[in-house]
Amino acid sequence: MFRILVVEDDDKLNRLFCTVLARNGYETLSAFEGQEALALLEKEYIDLIISDIMMPQMDGYELISLLRQAGYSMPILIITAKESFEDKQRGFLAGSDDYMVKPIDVGEMVLRVGALLRRAKLVSARKLSCGSTILNRDALTVTVDGTETLLPQKEFFLLYKLLSYPNKIFTRQQLMDEIWGMDSESEERTVDVHINRLRERFKDCRDFRIVTVRGLGYKAVKSE
Question: What is the pTM of this model?
Fold first, then answer.
């Protein structure tokens, strides 16, 4: 299921967008301004972002610019009341992929979300590449030098998360919350066990390695 982050400071609109998207088969998360969205992205995997422009503390332009500068490549749809050509131009230059002016038809919003996901080639095959290593999110497989391995779900999503953000350090608690769920009764040591299994499985892979950052957690490092 694709995960969409709705960044909108109007509570009613935020809930409306999330409700409509959920009814159309998407999983949604909410943020009400840019800083909150950035904090969510630190611990959640997001396939697409819908963002307003006029928000307190950090507006949509700044949010999108920061995301693109940080290397986030997911599609971003702006939905805003700002309708001038200059506003739209600024939105696209910041890094957005599409732009809608309020008031909107939520049915059209759903169509645009689907089109953006298809354009990003996420619908037909949600794949992540690291050198010659290919992770297929829908099949839970990792292909290294032409050899395909089916991973247990938790191992796959752990590896997918780390390789989605190379060199980014994730704490054990962040990984637990996202992959096992915030209500999980599993201990943080569970992450260590799965990391060790991944290291053993891919000890001969030349494309990446999983590094322990003492006192913090783990990160994936791509080979040069």
Answer: 0.58
